[in-house]
Structures are given as structure tokens and as C-alpha cells.
Specification:
Blueprint lengths: L5 H22 L2 H34 L3 H45 L3 E12 L2 E7 L12 E3 L4 E8 L4 E5 L6 E6 L5 E6 L5 E5 L11 E4 L12 E10 L5 E7 L8 E5 L23 H10 L2
Antiparallel strand pairs: 1-2, 1-12, 2-5, 3-4, 3-12, 4-5, 6-7, 6-9, 7-8, 8-11, 9-10, 10-11
């Protein structure tokens, strides 16, 4: 058996003395027990203060093995969040399209019209005008020049160019576009000229016509205008009289030309061969070929 060195013997004796002291403190009462408790309290306070400094580092080191799995979980949650946002956007777009189709159906029911739905696929100057839009329907769906375009309640413009599968709309907001209108309150006729995003400028045919703020103007009269009658054009927001006694008014447009999406082309007659479903008054027979009728059924599923 190996003998302890002098230093090892001294250390062992010191440890034995300390152990005997602690046993004595545990068995003794009163002040000794309080002294022992004080020693333990001081040691506990020392541990707590040390842990407050070293604890974050210790916990960081302990968490290093979980970093990989945490990163994977975060990436998964991000992907799921992106998918949910995409689904929400698609649902909102579908709800908007459904509402617009319902509005077009109401317009067809109210006016006994045949309407072909269309999507705007381009916007900007064209055909010599500043305010035009391109639709994804053309002659193959029965679209023809001078047909009226509506959003279901208000006038959007009129067709000025047609290809087999697309068409160009001159928007009513164009400064070169004039619309014959009627004041729904007084029945007075006037001409509304496009003013871009500012709406329309209105000049009544009767210079002394009674115009008031809040008056609504519709396309008309029937049979005397390029546009289908009865569509909203705008609301009077200001009336002014010139020095010669004539009256002019400013109109707020009933539909924004820069916020168009799904619109409807009011057909003069049924298309000969229509790949695009048409909207007809409820209960009316669509004037389409059998193949077009099948397309209509598919479009309303």
C-alpha cells in the first residue's frame, strides 16, 4: 500500500476536521445551528449571484444541440404561414370575382341584357387615346366595336377595336370620350366628358338647366347614344356658372377607371360561336351554339 505524502496527510486531516465541525453544527442547537444556517445561506446567495452571470451562457451551451431542430421548425412554420397567406389571397380573389359576377347577373336581369364577362389584361394608352384597357375576350365571344362595357352598375367604356380573342376598350374617363347622359332628378340631358381620375366634366344641353350637388347622371337616352342606357356615370360634386350664364358641373365617377378587374361587355346580339360563357337574364335562353351552352354550364359550376 502506497504511503501518503506529508502534504496529502495534512489535507486529509483538515478535511476530517471540517467534517467534524459540520456534524457538530448539525447536532448542536441555538447559535451553532444558526451559524450553520448562515453559512448555507451565504453559500446559496453566492450560487445564485454566480448563476445570474453564468446561467445564460450555460443555458446557451446546453441548447446548442437543439439549434438544428429549432431552425427546421422555424422554416416549417414560415412555409405554413406563406401557404396560409396564399390561400387567403386566393379566397379573397375568388370572393371578389363571385361578387362581380353576381353584379353582372343583376344587370342582365334588370335590363334584359346579354353580357359576356371579361378580365382586364392590359391598361394604358392605345388606339390614339390615353385611357384604354385590353380585355381577354374578342370576336369569338360575340364582342364587336361600339359595344358598351360595364362593371354591372356603372359605365366603364366602349369597345373600339376587336381581335379574335381580345378587344380594346376606350375608357369613359378618357378626355377624348364624351357620353350622352340624363339627370335622374330633372330628366335634363347633358354631355359628360372624361377627366381621368378627376371624374367627368358635365355640360347640360340647356344652358339654364337646374343642376344640384348630389344629382346622379345615367347613360341615355335609349337609342340616342353609343352607350347602353341606364348605367350610372357619376354624381355631381360641384356646380359653377360661367360669365355668359351657362352652367357646368364636376362629376365624381361611379366607378374608378384604375380599379377595374372583372367587367362585362353588353352584346348587341348573341354570339355566333362563343367559347366564353355569357350571362343572360335569369330564365332566358342564351343565344349561343350548343358548344357555347356547354361552356356556360362549366363557367357557373
Amino acid at each position: 500500500m502506497r504511503r501518503l505524502t506529508r502534504r496529502q496527510r495534512i489535507s486529509a486531516i483538515a478535511l476530517a476536521v471540517i467534517a467534524i465541525c459540520f456534524v457538530t453544527l448539525d447536532d448542536a442547537g441555538g447559535g451553532l445551528r444558526n451559524a450553520h444556517g448562515g453559512v448555507r445561506g451565504a453559500m446559496g446567495a453566492l450560487y445564485r449571484s454566480t448563476d445570474s452571470v453564468l446561467g445564460p451562457t450555460r443555458r446557451f451551451v446546453q441548447g446548442i444541440p437543439d439549434v438544428g431542430s429549432s431552425r427546421a421548425e422555424i422554416d416549417k412554420l414560415r412555409r405554413e404561414n406563406t401557404d396560409l397567406h396564399r390561400q387567403l389571397a386566393a379566397s379573397q380573389a375568388e370572393a371578389k370575382s363571385t361578387a362581380e359576377l353576381n353584379r353582372l347577373q343583376l344587370a342582365a336581369d334588370a335590363g334584359g341584357l346579354t353580357i359576356v364577362p371579361a378580365k382586364l389584361i392590359a391598361f394604358g394608352p392605345g388606339e390614339g387615346f390615353d385611357w384604354t384597357a385590353t380585355l381577354d375576350v374578342g370576336a369569338g365571344s360575340g364582342v364587336a366595336v361600339d359595344q358598351t362595357v360595364t362593371d354591372g352598375s356603372a359605365v366603364v367604356g366602349r369597345i373600339i377595336h376587336v381581335d379574335s380573342s381580345s378587344s380594346v376598350v376606350l375608357l369613359a374617363a378618357d378626355p377624348g370620350s364624351g357620353i350622352g347622359v340624363r339627370d335622374t332628378r330633372t330628366g335634363q340631358l347633358a354631355v359628360a366628358t372624361g377627366a381621368g381620375t378627376a371624374g367627368f366634366t358635365l355640360v347640360p344641353l340647356d344652358p339654364s338647366a337646374d343642376l344640384k350637388v348630389g344629382d346622379q347622371l345615367q347613360t341615355g337616352p335609349a337609342g340616342q347614344s353609343t352607350y347602353a342606357a341606364g348605367l350610372l356615370v357619376g354624381t355631381v360634386i360641384a356646380v359653377r356658372a360661367s360669365g355668359d350664364g351657362t352652367t357646368q358641373a364636376a362629376l365624381r365617377a361611379a366607378t374608378s377607371p384604375t380599379a377595374l378587374d372583372l367587367v362585362g361587355v353588353i352584346l348587341h346580339g348573341g354570339p355566333n360561336s362563343a367559347p366564353r360563357a355569357v350571362i343572360t337574364p335569369s330564365g332566358a335562353e342564351p343565344a349561343t351554339s350548343p358548344s357555347a351552352g356547354a361552356a356556360q354550364s362549366a363557367g357557373h359550376r
